[in-house]
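Worked example 2:
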Amino acid sequence: MRFVSRLVPLVLALAAVPSTSVLQAASGWLNWRGPDQNGVSKSTAKLPDKLEIGGPNHRWSVKVRGAGTPVIADGRVYAFGFYGETTDVEETLLCLDVKTGQKLWEHRFRDYLSDTTYNRYAIGAPVVDAETGNVYLESTWGHLMAFSRDGKLLWEHSMMEEYGRLTFPNGRTGSLAIDGPLVITDGITANWGADGPARNRFYAFDKRTGELAWFSTPGIEPLDSTFATPVFGNLGNQRVMYAGTGCGNIVCVNVRTGEPVWRFRLSQSGVNADILLDGPGKLIGIHGKENVDATHHGRLVALKIPTEYPTGPKPLVLGKEAEIWRNDEFVAFSSSPLLVNGRVYSTIATGSLLCADAATGKLLWSEKLAPDQLHASPAYADGKFYVPMHNGSVHILKDAGDKAQILSVNQMDSLCLGAPSFYGDSVFIFTKESLHCFGPKTTPPVIPASVAVAPEAPSTAPITQLQVLPAEFVLSPGMQQKFTVWGLDASGRRVRPVTSEVTWAKFIPPTALVKSEVDGELTGDTLRTKPTSRMSAGQFQAKWNNLSAVTRGRIVAGPGYKENFDAIALTQKNKDGETVEFPPLAWLGARVKWHVLERDGSKVVTNRLDNILFQRTMNFIGRSDLKSYTLEADVMTDGTRRVMSSVGLVNQRYLIALVANSRILEVSSNHERVKESVPFDAQPNTWYHLKTRVDSDGKGGGWVRAKLWERAKPEPDKWTIEVRQEKLHAQGAPGVFAFSPQALKRVYIDNLSLATHE
């Protein structure tokens, strides 16, 4: 069988399903903001005016911690939550029966290599595809997963290990979005090549196969992370999406091709709330950070946006002239607003619900609900507003014209950080302790009739552009990758595959700073590498009828890989005048963080100290599906007895590091989940050899083992550290690690090698 991707175990089976086939259509509250992506329900079902745990409208509760919103499809509730408190923390995708809360299936997963702190987990939501009934979710640390409605894992991607997704202590992930054949995610990534610098990027995957269709960088350098969800719309004959980014912009991106269309700078840093579309040519956005033209925080704005797809260079940059109105009384960090009957409603940081006229932005009324607010968004159904607050209260109210009419104030069992969701006559509230379902207990829950979803038919228009899937690939030596080339019409819709009709060639963009080619040969639709293929990166161009498109990828470290850097010619000067060169291009996100130079008569790789933002770096050199391997290298830190740095290796999602300042050898994953160490009296400017491996016990557990010794001495017989894991990370990419506090002292790595073990 030809290799497609170990990360896509069902690609061959799913690829055989025509794009027009209906697997099992789904209907309901399919994403966290509902059918129209605006938090408003169109259902006419009667919903409770009071939500009292243990009361007459309390149907069931399930003990699972959550900070997001459950989604519901055809009698099934899908909830993204977590269990545990310290080392036992696990995230989960939980499928429940909507009538009883009974568990139908569950998939649990454990944090790896993120810096998430204080149990800031499950800040997001699943999304259900209306066409297939499949369920999609991204974990807090960026593990993207696709499931059938019955819980079978269809495909997965580690965004961190494959695309250089960065994580942050606040745990912001948000929700995926689906449109047509694509499922879309975003995050701050530091990838490779031209996409090496950290930027807020969007990635669109084929929802059936998991193959990357496009990636897009519509903004500028980010100052923050974000978890806004794209909102879809039409612009002329094109399908587009609108979203906030970590660089403070609201952006418009072509959904089918990833082309950035326009952007508007709303904030100095991240825009976390979802936007609202208010008819053709008008968009409403909100933020809670520092404004771009004032020192105070927060603003609600209405923008005049293009009504036709722009021609010429893109993205367009919209300026202040695009503002229709602004209101600086709205300070909403990540709570998304509502648009109901010509009025905008939003909770703000100080715990009030504000109402403004959507035509003018004028404040109409304000109602104090809680001491403060964080994350949770209001929702609207059955003529009522359901408003969770950070302190665990849920307020049900109506708009009485010039004020709010409070119907009830309901205290939940813990903090509320997510929005309500609705299904039939049920209301769902997620807290940091439980998922609750409310509706009349005296009658069975109303289950709405399923709505058949017609799949998008292939376009019959002429093909005017090409798209290669996957748009990016990563292989180890000896592996192969199959490509599909789609012919798209002028609006980006798929017409038909033209794979068998294209011609291929290796391609180096004229603007490429590094002239590099993949060490493999593409014959027909398949790229093949040899067991001896060297670590490399580059692009391939597909041509058909005077049209062209590219895919890019890397050949990364596999078993047998050895690197002593001696073959790398030093052709550049760093800011200190030293002769240096970049590390291998295929090292993920490494070129802006590492240099090769000479030290102690040998070429070695060292972390760059010219940007304090990169004082801590983790860079992957192999595929994320590797397991049962030994990774070792010579390591050293500059410094004195008082000031040194940390250097280490990543093996199967465990970081094994010489933390020289603390005089320890440490094994960690997420530091609050796995963190064990043994004393090791490290000396500065002394070469040590670090040898690491992860061993499974065949029952789901295993050991993380490492030896560390002075390079000039013999290898010790015993492991320096052995850490038992009852739930072992089953696979993970090899990588290198450095941490130089305040960017003061370098670390060095040499004689890196990767080998399998039994």
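The longest strand covers residues 747-756. The CA atoms of residues 397 and 560 lie 65 Å apart.
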